[in-house]
Amino acid sequence: MGTNFKPSATDVANAASRELLYTICPVLVASNVALELGWIDDELARVGASATYLRSLADEDAWKPHYDHSSDRLIRDGGNSPAVWAKADLRPTVLIGLTQAQPAGKIIVRADADIYRVADLKGRAFGIYKSLRSEKIDHRRATTEHGILAALALHGLGGADVQWVDIEDRDSHKEVPARTPAGIWAQRHTDLDALVSGTHSREARALLEGRIDAIYDYSVGNAKRLEASGRFKVIDDLDLYPDWTLKIANAPRTITISKEFADTHRDVVVAFLRAAIRAGRWVNANPDAAAEVFQRTTIYPDASEIARALRAYDLVPNLSAQNLAGLTIEKNFLKAHGYIRNDFDVAEWADASFLEEALASL
Amino acid sequence: MVEVLERNPATRSVEVDAREAYYTICPTFVASNVAQELGWIEEEFRKVGAKLSYLRALPPELGYLPHFGHQLDHLFRDGGNIPSIWAKADVTDTTLLGLTASHHGGQILVRADADIASVADLKGRRFGISKSLNTGKVDWWRATSERGILVALRLAGLSRADVELIDVTHEDKGFGHASRPSELWAQRRTDLFYTPEVNALKEGKVDAVYTSHGRGQALERSGAFKAIEDFSRYPDWTLQVANSPYALTVNTDFARENRDIVVAFLRAAIRAARWINQNREAAAEILNRVTYHQTVADTAAAISGTDFLLSLSPQNLAGLDIQKKFLVEHGYVEKDFDSRKWADNSYLEEALRSF
């Protein structure tokens, strides 16, 4: 297999055409660590290729392909909703890996509320995120809607049993370009601290102000911060139930690649996956060390909470039957709730041959 | 009949030196229990030329009621917050120095052979609830049980009107004559588990009782009981408020005049907290002697998520307010007060800075 990673003479001559664009969500996926440790650069260099971060580009719309995959040479790792949307409605991509590593989500109310169960929320108001951007899928809204409906269903309720109150966000993406994702999220960290001083999200503020009665939170560590203020309590946590399908929303995370690039640069794609697999194994073996790295590459507030979360997850990308089934559940949810227009077959989208080749070479 | 002390500031029958302080600690997961067992409070006191005495070494007629009402001018008290709140509200002026959160709000226990699988099945049935006949102290165990029962009913979609609450009375006589807490609790290990309402449950006089986590675990091992509800299984931290977060308090006048002694006590508690957080298995051996859980392993498991470092964090103060609100609304405490003014973080800050 080693020969796969030696660039051909033609490849070296066409070095520019072997440049891969990448983008990674601020979430727990191995690519984030692979990048920070320099392994993506190393693996790509071995095949005469290089990787450029999407949001290092000076274009003010550089963030858009992160959602719509509008590039013929983009690899994307992160939340599945934009990837599903791009595949369903926009352009051909190939699914080459999945990672199930996201809290299933918690239902949070005010600490002094006379609310002890989700059932007590019948007729009450749930906050739901709404991006004011029309040119992208509203993945936060989709994830929140899915989570709230799951929590209601566990208590014999449906969407019509509660009020849904939009919590609007201009969703500006105003960060200045940065060489790597950590440079973007560092700007977001500063913003968040200044913006919410202790309550951490628009939804939490709306809850505190009494505009709504409950929120759904799927971050790592945010709930703990909210609790520490003494003003909020978690009345339900979908991770406490044995049903794994409750964990499905914007995860399993997807690694997707522009189809034309996958078809013509197989070795570059395999090189990227080698880096991700190495990083995934390293994270699994060293959750505390990895948490420090993830704190810089996510918008999660607390390294010790990240480390705790990592202990429950396998960060090596895979295309397991369970994860593919999970992704199908989410795709069907997005279709049924109008987030995507066209249906497609997840199994046909996935091509395990890249991952198999990468695994065999390690 | 039990002696009843009037609610006046302090009993004058105990002679206390100017630089002497008494301490009393509940059988709860607080760092001062370990600091005491390791001799660190005495050590820190010696450094500032102060003398440490144990309240419960006094005869019960002198030492029992001040454990609840703080009626002794030079007293440090750590443990269940219900007596501390009552003492501050209705008995004597104290200062709150620190809080320790607990993570086990308690359980609902029924007989193991009962055809009762959940709290919802208790609709129309009888809850036994302890009632102390000692009017000289707040009935902290009744208050803890009452809140536990009401919360359990709420979680099951029921309310107080759906069940019958049966008072199970007991004389609640004072006890003491122990040189230190481990000796005091060693005298009472069995009584700690078989509270009067548990006996009533065993005898079939009631269908369910509220119990603390450590008691419930030990009682289940008898084979006679089963827990059908356990608040620690819920993510809601406010459900874990049960005579907690534990409160460390001291008489206000004493604190103002003897700041160095207060800081010395806190230094010992902070040292112990850091030691426990680093050495939980070792700490479990010590805590097991001075708390309710039956075995060292039970104790180790119960403290795995506890941060023993005293804190007046917003969350701990909010927990205290939840407990206080309940006590006021249900008549356990007459006068409400502002817990933010009760708390004085300057002692803890000074102690933390001194390392």
Compact overview of the structure:
The complex is a heterodimer of chains A (362) and B (355). Chain A is of the alpha/beta class and 362 residues long.
Return the CATH class of the largest domain in chain B.
Answer: Alpha Beta
The average pLDDT value of chain B, as a whole number, equals 94
Count the domains of chain A.
Answer: 2
The helix-and-strand class of chain A reads alpha/beta
Radius of gyration of chain B: 20 Å
Please indicate the percent range of residues of chain B in DSSP E strands (runs of 2 or more). 15-25%
The H-level CATH homologous superfamily of the largest domain in chain B, spelled out, is Periplasmic binding protein-like II
Low-confidence stretches of chain A: 1-5, 194-199
Largest sheet of chain B: 5 strands, mixed
The CATH architecture of the largest domain in chain A: 3-Layer(aba) Sandwich
What does this structure look like?
The complex is a heterodimer of chains A (362) and B (355). By secondary structure, chain A is of the alpha/beta class. Chain A folds into two domains: 2-101 and 250-360, Periplasmic binding protein-like II (D-Maltodextrin-Binding Protein, domain 2, 3-Layer(aba) Sandwich), CATH 3.40.190; 106-174 and 196-247, 3-Layer(aba) Sandwich (D-Maltodextrin-Binding Protein, domain 2), CATH 3.40.190.10. Chain A is 43% helix and 15% strand. Chain B contains 16 helices and ten strands. Chain B has helices at residues 31-37, 40-47, 60-69, 81-91, 140-155, 181-186, 189-193, 196-202, 213-220, 252-257, 259-278, 280-290, 296-302, 314-329, 339-342, 346-353, and strands at 20-25, 51-54, 75-79, 94-100, 107-111, 126-132, 164-170, 208-211, 225-230, 246-251. Chain B has a five-stranded mixed beta sheet, with helices on both faces. Chain B has a five-stranded mixed beta sheet with strand order 7-6-8-5-9. The longest helix of chain B is centred in the C-terminal third of the chain and has 20 residues, at 259-278. The termini of chain B are far apart. The chains are: A alpha/beta (362), B alpha/beta (355).
